[in-house]
Specification:
The protein has about 140 residues and is of the alpha/beta class. Helix content is about 25%, strand content about 20%.
């Protein structure tokens, strides 16, 4: 596996990653939807949106500020493979990655398999106070 320094020497640009964590029904999808509707955040950059869980809310790409978001569903934690993730970013020519992470998966599964040029710019953990104690 190549380290970050090797990627940078090979001409790979740094890939910003925005990671959204939290339990089911914590508001991740709603927050991401609103963010992608905002032209201040979604200003035309090609975005790869990785969905590691599918909750009750669904994305409405027609409301995104730009038609520049590719949505890929990750069904199983074992799919979090460095080569697969790097291949998705290359396939969709992504400028950045947004991840709606599954609250029941170990975060290390994602962090240890991120391609070397992926850098977490922000990690946001959302919670719903009415269901937090249940989880």
């Amino acid at each position: 596996m190549m380290n970050k320094e090797t990627f940078m020497r090979a001409g790979q640009k740094e890939m910003p990653v925005y990671l959204f964590t939290g339990f089911l029904d914590s508001g991740k999808t709603t927050f991401i939807q609103g963010t992608l509707e905002d032209p201040a955040f979604n200003n035309g950059e090609k975005t790869l949106l990785l969905l590691c869980e599918e909750g009750e809310e669904e994305f409405n790409p027609a409301k995104f500020a730009f038609n520049n978001v590719e949505i890929v569903v990750i069904e199983d934690e074992e799919e979090l493979d460095t080569g697969y993730l790097a291949g998705l970013a290359a396939k969709y020519d992504a400028d950045r990655v947004i991840v709606e992470y599954n609250g029941m998966w170990m975060l290390d599964s994602f962090y240890s398999n991120m391609p070397a040029n992926w850098v977490v710019y922000q990690e946001m953990c959302l919670t719903d106070a009415t269901t937090f104690l249940t989880y």
